[in-house]
Design a protein that fits this description.
Layout (H helix, E strand, L loop, with lengths): L4 E8 L3 E4 H8 L3 H7 L4 E4 L6 H12 L8 E7 L10 H9 L6 E5 L5 H15 L4 E10 L12 E10 L5 E3 L4 E4 L5 E2 L8 E2 L1 H23 L8 E4 L4 H14 L26 H12 L8 E8 L3 E9 L9 H9 L2 E2 L2 H9 L9 E2 L8 E7 L2 E6 L2
Helix pairs in contact: 1-2, 3-4, 6-7
The chain binds 3-hydroxy-3-methylglutaryl-coenzyme A (HMG).
């Protein structure tokens, strides 16, 4: 049987972070609430010259290493931090990466679920067009606002993966347990640059959606909880995924072991919520931080996007996958970040681009290869560093 799946996977996050202990102290909160109660340690913060386009382009550049860019015939970009109501942010990324003019580019939206939608739509396309490749990018900046309960669950990141009929990392199984329901747990109207969220309600709906998705997936596949060797969950904060895993185990009358999920948390604990990207950063974290050979093992995936759409699906890790991981690059990227203090974090957070069409130049901060250099006549300007 023909196999389709992920040939290459990489992620990128901003070059700055805030230690959540420092945030807790500044907000007069017991630091244990953030580190133990939420399970988070560091939070990626974006400087003025980094946005969802630069995050996306930097992650895609790494995912495309060794792949002929002309082979990419479709790019699907998932985001809920879009920069334009009409033009897909992927077109800026397409330009920065020098992809083929014959590559179709579209933006997808459904909160954090859109990355999963990109995966499934891309797989359907590849099954019809097995000689082609699809680049899926999930890119987001999680913003709740200063002094809000959601503040310690902010973060940013982009994950990029190439789907093809030569899946060197993971193939996916056909059963998909889907759950859609109109709920107002988290949303962001066009006039707001921070999310509105009913935090406690959102955690309740996440768990309910998981149960519904699991039941549907299980009916279709006949698989049991124990048929899945590892699990990757959407990661708004680590404790949420731990609770989800405990709930799923309980539902199936099983005990949980930290091994089943812990390695998928390592990267997100250091960068926070990356919305659409978090599930795939979790997958990179699992593959790159597990010593044991996971070849032929089944992984269960749960994607949740507020609003809400959720999905449970599964994949099989491919033999030889370790040779195709970008572990050193990802670890070096996380370890070489600059720690910001509260003053820089708040100044980055409140920075705004002019909205009157005036020409504004952004001085360089520490970024990857691509940066936002300014804005002129309402047009964002990007540059590739030499
Ligand atoms: P909160 O109300 O400030 O916190 O907000 P809390 O009172 O619920 O405490 C959090 C946990 O810390 C609790 O643990 C406390 O007991 C514990 P739990 O009881 O839940 O297990 N705690 C402590 N632990 C140790 N030492 C202490 C201490 N004090 C308390 N001293 C909340 C928390 C998550 C609600 C807030 O941060 C928030 O609103 N975040 C944003 C929403 C969110 O992340 N929701 C997740 C589900 S929805 C989702 O995943 C979709 C999303 O990614 C968006 C999308 O789809 O686009 C968000």
């Amino acid at each position: 049987m023909k196999k389709y799946g992920i040939e290459s996977l990489s992620f990128y996050t901003s070059r700055y972070y805030l230690d959540l202990i420092e945030l807790a102290v500044a907000r007069g909160i017991d630091p244990d609430k953030y580190t133990t109660g939420l399970g988070q340690h560091l939070m990626a913060v974006v400087p003025p010259d980094e946005d969802v386009v630069t995050l996306a382009a930097n992650s895609a550049k790494s995912a495309l290493a060794g792949i002929d860019p002309n082979e990419i015939s479709m790019m699907l970009v998932a985001t809920e931090s879009g920069i334009d109501q009409s033009k897909a942010l992927g077109i800026w990324v397409h330009n920065l990466l020098g992809l083929s003019p014959q590559c179709r580019v579209v933006e997808l939206k459904q909160a954090c679920y859109a990355g999963c939608a990109g995966l499934q739509l891309g797989l359907s396309y590849i099954s019809q067009n097995p000689h082609k490749k699809v680049l899926v990018i999930a890119t987001d900046i999680a913003r709740y606002g200063l002094h809000t309960p959601g503040e310690p669950t902010q973060g940013c990141g982009a994950a990029s993966f190439v789907l093809s009929a030569n899946p060197k990392l993971v193939t996916f199984e056909p059963e998909q347990g889907i759950f859609t329901s109109h709920v107002m747990d988290f949303w962001r109207p066009n006039y707001s640059d921070t999310a509105f969220v009913d935090g406690k309600f959102s955690t309740k709906i996440y768990l309910e959606a998981l149960e519904q998705c699991w039941k549907s997936y299980q009916e279709q596949s006949g698989r049991k909880f124990e048929d899945h060797y590892r699990f990757c969950y959407h990661l708004p904060f680590i404790r949420m995924a731990q609770k989800a895993h405990e709930r799923l185990a309980r539902l199936n009358g099983k005990e949980t072991t930290p091994d089943a999920v812990e390695n998928s948390f390592i990267y997100s604990r250091q960068l926070g919520n990356s919305y659409t990207a978090s599930l795939f950063i979790g997958l990179a974290s699992l593959l790159e931080n597990t010593q044991e050979d996971l070849s032929q093992k089944r992984v269960g995936f749960f994607s949740y996007g507020s609003g809400c759409v959720a999905e449970f699906f599964s994949g099989i890790i491919q033999p030889g996958y370790k040779e195709h991981l970008k572990t050193d690059y990802h670890r070096a990227m996380l370890e070489s970040r600059t720690r910001t203090g509260m003053a820089d974090y708040e100044s980055f957070f409140t920075h705004k681009l002019p909205q009157d069409g005036s020409h504004y130049v952004i001085s360089p901060y520490n970024t990857g290869l691509y940066r936002l250099s300014g804005i002129k006549n309402h047009e964002r300007l990007y540059e590739t560093k030499p």
